[in-house]
Amino acid sequence: MKIKLDENLPLRLASRLKNLGHDVHTTRDEGLSGHPDHDIWVRAQEESRFLITQDLDFSDSRQFAPGSHCGILLVRLRLPSRRNLIERISTLFENENIADWNRCFVVATERKLRVVKPSTRVD
To answer: Which parts of 12-99 fold into alpha helices (H)?
Structure first.
């Protein structure tokens, strides 16, 4: 999977995900640290990357409707230490069928995972 890590995630997570076979870019590597969310979003979409973030600004389903992007994983931990974030996200990528997350909005907490898939309704 092609992944973009937002700046609010530990850099060591990139190495973990790369070791699992993913193509990972970080905002820091690309000189986007401190840039507005819009810049990070545009770059992720231009590169067809799945965005992993803790930023609630990306939770607006009207602006970031499933199917209108490459996918978002919003991580919401009560205690988001570096260690907890790395462990939770690594566990998800090791144990879940992440191929099904393409174009989805995914929310992960310590114990739960919610995957909102693109609408398949026909008008």
So the answer is: 12-19, 37-46, 82-95
Q: Which residues of the chain have pLDDT under 70?
A: 120-123
Is the CB of residue 72 less than 8 Å from the CB of residue 105?
A: yes
Which residues have C-beta within 8 Å of that of residue 16, sequence separation ≥ 6? Answer: 86, 89, 90
pTM over 0.85: yes
Tokens of 12: 């060591």
Backbone angles phi, psi at 83, to 5 degrees: -60, -45
Q: Which domains does the chain have, with CATH numbers?
A: 2-116 (3.40.50)
Question: Is the Cβ–Cβ distance between 67 and 27 less than 8 Å?
Answer: no
* Structural contact between residues 17 and 11, judged by C-beta atoms closer than 8 angstroms: no
